Amino acid sequence: MKRTVLISRIILGLLYLIFGLDYFLHFIPYQPEHTGATGALVSGLKGVGYIYPYMKTIQILAGLCLLFNRYAPFAAVVVFPISLNVFLFHTILVPSGWYMGCLLLGPNLLLGWGYRKYYAGMFTAKPIL
């Protein structure tokens, strides 16, 4: 399990770091133009002005945390909603890119399982102060 967590952590960290940095530095040359419902969603998120930069900054920070193994369980929880949304976007709206969603959600789920002992406190039904 240690090897699985290590590989998942590095894959997820690299993906989030690379795609987060690409938003600001534009070093990935080909990015298809979205049309229809996908175009409306992406242009709406970008049009708001703060959501994309905020999300990409979170991706960069979480990617660094995962790569350097600092606050990795926290970083995995923080990026899980992003991984889930990428998975749903690429399986429902752009089915041809389903593998990208799986490439993010799979390692994130494996990290969730590997770090489950660190999440035990989050699932306390009735906390006592």
Please explain how this structure is put together:
This protein has 129 residues and is mainly alpha-helical. The chain has one domain. Helix 1 runs antiparallel to helix 3. It starts with a helix and ends in a 15-residue tail after the last helix. The mean pLDDT is 90.
Strand content: under 5%
N-to-C CA distance = 34 Å
Number of strands: 0
Task: Provide the domain count.
Answer: 1
Shape: globular
Helix content: over 70%
Which value, in Å, is the CA radius of gyration?
Answer: 16 Å
Largest sheet: none
Q: Enumerate the spans where pLDDT stays under 50 for 5 or more consecutive residues.
A: none
Question: Helix count, per DSSP?
Answer: 5
The succession of helices and strands, N to C, reads HHHHH
- The average pLDDT is 90
Structure classification: mainly alpha
In short:
By secondary structure, this protein is mainly alpha-helical. It contains five helices and no strands.
Question: What key phrases describe this protein's structure?
Answer:
mainly alpha, globular, 5 helices, 129 residues
List the helices and strands and how they pair.
Elements: H1 2-25, H2 36-48, H3 51-68, H4 72-93, H5 98-114
